[in-house]
Amino acid sequence: MSFYLAFLKVIGLLAVTAPVALGFGFLGAMAARSHIAPLRWFGKTYIAIVRGVPDIAFFLFFVIALDQGFEYIRHKVKCPDWDAPIRQGSDFIVCQAAKLPLGTSPEWVHETYGFALAVLTFAIVFGAFAANVLFGGMRAVPRAQLETAEAYGMSRRQTLWRILVPQMWVYALPGLSNLWMVLIKATPLLFLLGIEDIVYWARELGGTKTARFTDYPHGDWRMWYFLFLLVFYLAFTRVSEIVLSRIMIRLAHGQATTAGEAQRKAAA
Amino acid sequence: MSCFQTIQDYGLRSLGIGERLLPRSDFTLCEHFVLIGSGMIWNIYFGIVALLLGFFLATALAVAKASPRRILRKPAEWFIFLFRGSPLFIQFFFAYFLFLNLKSQYPVFSPFTAAWLGALIVLFLNTAAYSGEIFYGALRSIPKGDVEAADAYGMTGWPRFRRIVWPTMLRLAWPAYTNEAIFLFHATTLVFFSGFPAWQQRGDALYYASYFADKTFNPFVPYPILAGYFILFTLVVVTVFGLINRRLNRHLPQERRTKMRFRPNLIR
């Protein structure tokens, strides 16, 4: 049962992470092209750092760092009169009330918390990639379009929302669809974050147990489970490719690009 | 214990030379640097060998995929789709358990279950598929005039490929191939997190970084060090590939040379 649930987890993670990462990316791109210098620096650093380092290191780093960060903040708020240092040698000690999730809370809270951390980590990492793509997309919108908007007397904000944002998607979509493929292929890393996902179960169910725990009366099936996962991912990417090319055709409709022009000519 | 002593003890620890036991408590900054740096040996080994071997297979794949003959084209297309469409992580797992199964039947396969050979094969095939696609794209964008000129000089078959098509293909593909090299280099961190065991704790850089993070519960020291090493080696890769790019483009006037764009790192 948990094995089937693991597939739902992967798909759920994708469904939640994709919009959140897109949101992060949008904010990051907006920050990177902001007129306020500190905000711009923040945006550019965010994009640069996440892209320069192996992402798997980020997955390992953020889960602990975020967890400790949350607990640290809660510790400061909830137990102001605690005077022992938080880092005692190699231990990270916060007061009982600041533990996240609380030691007393039921099992599902722990699991949900772990899942939420995973989503947040994925969103931060992929948000940076998305920010880069969207930043490029915003710059690719022809200058003349924006100048026309200004000539019509639109304010900066109006130009942004009515001209720039609707048009940038065509330029950003190839990058974003690439990113989606990458995101699909990154989901097995969930296993590293301690979520019981499909990789975990494939190892667990396929392995032969020792004589004391003869739960699974079969040989070593892990190879077949991983072959199955391989096919699952291949099918998933193939379907996504087809869907994304459909979306691209829709988006290119009526745009000032070669693809849009080709559609116009074909119709005429 | 001085830092020099630490370098003597742990400098080649990832190859099994030096102190057998890893440090267990009271980690110094020096130990972090030395041990993670020692792990980088594996990352460099995987990166360089897989890239060198993969280069030749990638050229063959690109030529096969561009071939008009179905019997050559279809296998190349399938190979590229198989390795580009599924997560590298799952490929590692599958290969490991495949080799494990083969080993139990034919003892010849026993070195394949060790990371130095088994993971190398997976990385080799994987990078061959990715760079094969890059080369294929470059092959299709070779200027028509170049090939026509070769025909006019009476060049056919192998001389035409060796002297005209291949150098131009490399020249066009080189910026993208640089990204692929960086990307492969980052992907080597996955090796010891998939099935392949780190025998006698001889792991790569990320293996040691996560060892420290697990022991100290402090991700803020080992992972930035790891990131520093990777940024350093990424710069080395960029420099070396930049020099090769200069040489490939040496016959062109300054403004027509293909610019290197540093655009690395998405998960595979």
Automatic annotation (TrEMBL), chain B:
- Keyword vocabulary terms for this entry: Amino-acid transport, Cell membrane, Membrane, Transmembrane, Transmembrane helix, Transport
Would I find Membrane among this entry's keywords?
Answer: yes
**Signal sequence range:** none
Instruction: Tell me the ranges covered by the ABC transmembrane type-1 domain, including all copies.
Output: 40-244
User: What is its membrane topology?
Assistant: Multi-pass membrane protein
Alphabetical list of Pfam families matching this protein: BPD_transp_1
Protein localization: Cell inner membrane; Cell membrane
- TM annotation in the entry: 44-64, 76-99, 111-130, 181-200, 220-244
Which residue windows are coiled coil? none
Q: Which family does it belong to?
A: Belongs to the binding-protein-dependent transport system permease family. HisMQ subfamily.
NCBIfam families named in the record: HEQRo_perm_3TM (TIGR01726)
Name of the protein described by the UniProt record: ABC transporter permease subunit
Upper taxonomic classification of the species?
Bacteria, Pseudomonadati, Pseudomonadota, Alphaproteobacteria, Rhodobacterales
